[in-house]
User: Fold this.
Amino acid sequence: MSTRDPVALVIGEFGPGALAGYYGRALQMLGWRVVAYDMQRGYTRGRLLARARPLRRLLRRPLWALMARETAALARRHRPDIVLATKAPFLGADDVHALRRAGAPVVMIYPDSPYGSYTQRTDVLSVLAAYDRVYVWGRHLVSRLSADGVSAAAYLPFAFDPGDYGREGPIDRPSCGRTHAIAFIGQRYDKRQAWLEALRGLDVGVWGLGWDRSEVARAAGHCVHAEVVHGGAAGAIYRGTTLALNVLHADNVPAHNMRTFEIPPCGAVMLSEATDEIASFFEPDRACLLAADPAALRAQAERALADGALIRALAREGARAAAPHTYQARVRTILGDLGVGAGQAAKAQVRS
Assistant:
């Protein structure tokens, strides 16, 4: 009887720092063959429409329909043992049901809030209800989704990829020519700008979309870097800083975000907006520093930068607390939950 490695069809974006890429890599490390459908390439038609955003919006409906057909064709060709999608807004409920008819569980890992501003679909709840399982990163979302008809909703936190975020690896030398005591990586929002303004006069380096237009950040004396960094490039910045800031998007409160697990493995001390969920993973004042508001953020930063022994202890305990939370561990949770791919973890241990 012939055997084959189990096959996973992974749907999502695969650029640096993208969630689908991390899950695909974790599956490969566990002995799976990964067939990827890159929805960014599908939407831009291999970069043909990359610089034509108005045209893409005009053509969204036919583009999404084409992408759904391409995904279904991949499923027919490769007969996956699991289909794992990250957001995948181009898939409607009928498309999900069609994928399920092939027999493999079809799983959604939803990286945003289905009730937030980034859903891209008005019928998102009915689409999510079509999946065999919907994993979300916030406990508060599970009960709400269940009440709204998504009975297969389950809690699954974010994680980190040791290939991008770990103590070992390159340390970035920023374009300004110097490392910073405090680093923030993330898109500019009004809330984040207000929190960073509280660090006026401290040595803060900022990376992310929108900050180049922030007069507030420059007036505060922060060093704003034009380059946008993701994945391994972000890890290299974290390895070169003392404190790494984590200010949540409003949709992520009261839970956590991807940065929650990406900062501590790099050896930087996470200085984060406080939530009970973050505190449940990283003990405050032992594995991280938490702040309830911008004034507390500044007080925590000044306290930590003045105490080298505290910094070393926090960094050490933060890395230890983060260690179990890899994407390989999350994949094992998913496979165990669904009863799929038994024995693959042991197989991967032999290979490695």
Summary: The longest strand covers residues 7-12.
